[in-house]
Amino acid sequence: MAEPSATEPERPHQERADDAVIATRGLTKRYRGGQLAVDGLDLTVPAGSVFGFLGPNGSGKTTTIRMLMGLIEPTSGSARVLGRPMPRASRTVLPRVGALIEGPALYGFLSGRDNLLRYDAADPTADPRTRRERVAAALDRVGLAAAGGKKAKAYSLGMKQRLGLAAALLQPRRLLVLDEPTNGLDPQGMREIRTLVRELASDGTTVFLSSHLLDEIEQVCTHAAVMAQGRLITQGAVADLSAGARGRLVVTTPDAGEAARVLKEQGAADLVVDGDRVTAEPPERDLAEVNAALVAARVRVRGFVLERASLEDAFVALTGEGFDVAG
Amino acid sequence: MAPIDSDDNTTAGEGEELRAGRRKAARYVVPVAVMGVAAATIGLVPALADSGDPDLPKVTAEQLIEKIAKSDVQQLSGTVRINTDLGLPDLGGLESGLMSGMSGGPGSGGDGEGSAADPSAKLTELVSGSHTLRVAADGPDRQKLSLLENAAEYSLIHNGKDVWGYDSQSNEVYHSTAPDGAERPEKDVPGKDVPATPKDFADQALKSVDDTTSVTVGGTAQVAGRDAYRLVVEPKQKGSTVGAITVAVDAETGTPLKFTLTPASGGAAVVDVGFTKVSFAKPDASTFDFTPPEGAKVTEADESDAAAEAPEHGRPAEGDLAEGLDGLKVIGEGWNSIATFDTGAQGGLPTGSEGGDLGGLGGFLGSFGDQVKGDFGSGTVFKTRLVNALITDDGKVYAGAVTKDALVKAADAAQ
Amino acid sequence: MSRAEAQDDRVREPAVATPGGPDAARTPSPLWSLGLLRSELLTTFRRWRTLALLAVLAAVPILVGIAVKIETSDGSSLGGGGGGGGGAGPAFISQVSNNGLFLVFTALAATLPFFLPMAIGVVAGDAIAGESSAGTLRYLLVAPAGRSRLLLTKYATVIAFCLAATLVVAVSALAVGALLFPVGDLITISGTRITYAEGLGRALLIALVVAASLVGIAALGLFVSTLTGSGIAAMATTVGLLITVQILDQIPQLDALQPYFFSHYWLSFADVMREPVYWDDLVKNLGLQALYAAVFGSAAWARFTTKDITA
């Protein structure tokens, strides 16, 4: 195991990686068929963040998460979780990580409680004397206390999802990895999960949340990374990411044709006229001048708004394609 | 630096990739190594066990034969392994059918009078294949011979005047009474005339020692954990199929521990009988106790004449087998003796047209024979690794432990 | 190296871990590892499938017992009068009507060639592959159960099942035998008489030997189980291998290979009923089973600890 890398000089990102909860360097996974699932991923998840891991289905999110959890060995590159290398340090890292990977998996013939007891027993650092209390607390936390004695195969999809979450919450964790946690849930269930995530984050737990739903990420995450086709496209604070993309100017007016002409004169590009709405990429100049020009041309303006860019806009700007395109 | 930092050295790149691959492959070394060690153990242990030929004071062949003759081991128990490879065509059921036919019928299907526990039927099984036997003896009155079978056992117990045969598979018992006392116990125990122990074989072999035979001491050996001398008996004449007979004689007691007959043609031994375990302590008296178990079918010897007669036919030795046949002559002497008789059947092999079981059998056997021609005419030679037989077309049979050429020569000379 | 050495990392942990919160040092006791074994045993023996397999095994002695009872109800003894054959039916069956204890041996001889190893094949084949296809394997591993520890636990559980399955057959046969047939002193196959108590002792020894005879196929099944992600495929492969080997063991041309087939010495358990006990084949059997366990156990380990878990 001691394989000194004498050739490797002190790396500049070393300090940054130290307080990162997850840090990967050139993480690559090529499956046996030759398919490149993850390609040179450099991911940094700061401690205390709620980190959105975004990407269409098939973009390599799950493969990345499996590598982080030590389930898949990277083809090359390295991954560090809680400052320790994975998968080598699985034994010390994983007890402090709760995970929900690709949906819950349960023993249908066991009750919800027995499922949790089994997963808790699988953790060699879990004290068997307090196992029942831990399980009861976890069930309580996800609102399954009443259904704990029911066989898991009788659970609805939402209940299974919650039980999976409960398994991730058996111990106090430093990192929670939640892969598509709201998949298959009704809007009420989704809201509950998001509330739970915010709660956990406020306790200081870092949450790594993968999703293909943009608004979900936008609602709960402080940081985000975007993946497409196995590559990391961008990462950073959600606010910075949206700021990177420019907003759009929206003018509401009954004189749409005239408004469009004026806006074009004023240097706005990409004009779209849709009924009484004219949208355009705002010109470089002061928007007050633009408004004045409209008024001067006797365009009756009902509304004049600069719409802030959404994460989706950021994504489209980055990839040049729609979000739902599968990699 | 300290190993604490060692896991910081996870670096990206090709090296890592290669190492990971090598690490994976390295794990498969474990099962391969386990297999290697096992193979080495299986290969080496017998070799190591063999290597220690004991250092014993030199003896001459005469002294050794005398030692065997003087040997008076009354108490003994052990396990005997018999391997017989006569080189008969592997006919499976037919072969054993022939064997039971030879033994006079009992035990063969449909013969209601036979008992599965009949000694003669059981012990002729020893003529082919590999068998494990257990023997125990305590004086002339108490002996036990057990043939170990799959999940079953055939036991032949001689205790005083009772002789019991017990076949555990069918839960059948055979009972006969031997004359009281030690008048001729060896001979009167049914089945005892079927050689089973190395001593039985050795006695047979040493009977034939005469001027056609060379007897030498061929070093020492370890048999069943005991030091032994190897007595090598070889025919001096050419033409015999017998290569050599080796008898391992216990250095202490003079008991033959192992008997090996190797054919002149080389290869594996035709007959290999030896103790794998032996003890000269007095066997537990309960070994010889026998009372028929509840529900067992008991056949008394005098109930079935056929069963009592059977041992006479049960001898595998070719001489005995031929005794009942008319016109038997023995040509030659010593190892090259050839038994000959005239079946009177013109046309050599009985053919199918003559009808009957034998006809079918003959036609079938014909396909295994070699056609030969000579001054005598022509005939068919049937070969095993030890005994060859020539059946001429005019119905004469020549058989012996001699080569094909010797048979043809004998046939020619007889013309 | 990776996962196996992960344990070593614990020693160095203080250098990295920050105090407080979730890091508050949990000092695990080595005994806590047994929690997984306990959980595994509970999970296995609470499965409907496991109980069904055991029920089938328990039914075999009942059927054999009733069949023998009917066959011998006219007072005749089984196999008697049929001539020298006696080859029909499992070993010892001719003695069952005389002594109920023989039903234990008969039942084990009847179930050992197929029913018992098939049950083991199902449980062993499903051990890893079943968890994999249910998806629960990934959660056990991130718990983290540890791959070597999980594999060892699985194997220990399969061995426990071998023992349980054998004892179920033996106990069922003992009860049925005592109920339907006379019991008492019995005759060994060497023709000597032993007391019923000693007979019981030998029956227990035989049950243990039979259970040990299944250790090899258990390891084989576990190895197959690490190769595939489908529990059904692993079970089918293991049972298929079992049948293939049983058939090959009957082909005379392969006699040079046969001593290395895991099933070759299975019936040697009958040697316990000889007087004195004939140990040679029993020892060979146990050695062979240990060899299979070592080879396929380590192959399963090599495979499982380097395998990508994608299900």
TrEMBL record, chain A:
Organism expressing this protein natively: Streptomyces hyderabadensis
Pfam family, one: ABC_tran
Keyword DNA damage among UniProt keywords: no
GO molecular function: ATP binding
UniProt KW keywords: ATP-binding, Nucleotide-binding, Transport
Protein name as catalogued: ABC transporter ATP-binding protein
Protein family per UniProt: Belongs to the ABC transporter superfamily.
Start and end residues of each ABC transporter domain: 22-254
Lineage: Bacteria, Bacillati, Actinomycetota, Actinomycetes, Kitasatosporales
From TrEMBL, chain B:
Listed Gly residues bias regions: 102-113
Cited PANTHER family: SPORULATION PROTEIN YDCC
UniProt KW Transmembrane helix keyword: yes
Residues annotated as transmembrane: 28-49
SUPFAM superfamilies on file: Prokaryotic lipoproteins and lipoprotein localization factors
Organism lineage string: Bacteria, Bacillati, Actinomycetota, Actinomycetes, Kitasatosporales
The protein, known as: Outer membrane lipoprotein carrier protein LolA
Origin superkingdom: Bacteria
Biased composition (Basic and acidic residues): 181-191
Region of interest (Disordered), residue spans: 1-23, 93-120, 171-195, 291-321
Keyword entries, A-Z: Lipoprotein, Membrane, Transmembrane, Transmembrane helix
